[in-house]
Design goal:
α6 crosses α7. The mean pLDDT is 90. This protein is an alpha/beta fold and 217 residues long. The protein is 47% helix and 15% strand. It is globular, with a radius of gyration of 18 Å.
């Protein structure tokens, strides 16, 4: 199965992607991860991406698409994948459509994780991470035993700068301007399915399973 995961920051896409990967053996392709891997591997597109990352700039669409193309043409993904974090705008969606056409792949599903803006702010504001070992925490659903000390390595538990409420608001505004139009784009193609990302992780995953059970490939 070939699918794309959509949804605002904090919708739980990454968590659900891991569960889908484990149960259905569909490999996840996270844009951030593959850009890092491309840089590490010193591929041609990776070298171009590194120039932008080192200068603190966003990696442009052309480079991201080149890295995506490198990844999708690997044998690992010939039978299925989940794209998480791509496409982020209509231009990327059009480029992805053209790329998939060239390599003979057709998207079966776009899974949109729908969540209220207020809940996103609450979720992301509660996130914390260990400064040392990167263990994630949530002050509401999964707090450390000591609110400033990691349970695993005793490192300092901190809030990332991009999880502060004012930054979250900016991220959501960017998402609504650039990424949310993809909902209508994929709905018009008849491949969009909506999951209400509310309740426990398992509650949401039950919805995901119901959707996946309706898809014939």
């Amino acid at each position: 199965m070939f699918m794309v995961l959509l949804g605002p920051p904090g919708a739980g896409k990454g968590t659900q992607a891991k569960k889908i990967e484990e149960q259905y053996n569909i490999p996840q392709i996270s844009t951030g991860d593959i850009i890092r891997l491309a840089i590490q591997s010193k591929s041609e597109w990776g070298k171009k991406a590194e120039e932008y990352v080192r200068s603190g700039e966003l990696v442009p669409d052309e480079v991201v698409i080149g890295i995506i193309q490198e990844r999708l043409t690997q044998n690992t993904y010939r039978n299925g994948f989940m794209l998480d974090g791509f496409p982020r705008n209509l231009e990327q969606a059009e480029a992805l459509s053209q790329l998939l056409k060239e390599i003979g792949i057709q998207l079966n599903l776009v899974l949109y994780f729908d969540v209220d803006r207020e809940e996103v702010i609450e979720r992301l504001s509660a996130r914390r991470i260990c400064e040392k070992c990167q263990t994630p925490y949530n002050m509401v659903s999964k707090p450390p035993k000591n609110d400033k000390i990691c349970d695993i390595c005793q490192g300092r538990v901190i809030q990332r700068p991009d999880d502060r409420p004012e930054v979250i608001m900016n991220r959501l505004n960017t998402y609504e301007q650039q990424t949310k139009p993809l909902v209508d784009y994929y709905r018009s193609q008849g491949i969009l399915k909506i999951v209400v990302s509310k309740g426990s992780i398992d509650d949401v995953f039950q919805q995901v399973q119901k959707v996946l059970g309706t898809i014939s490939v």
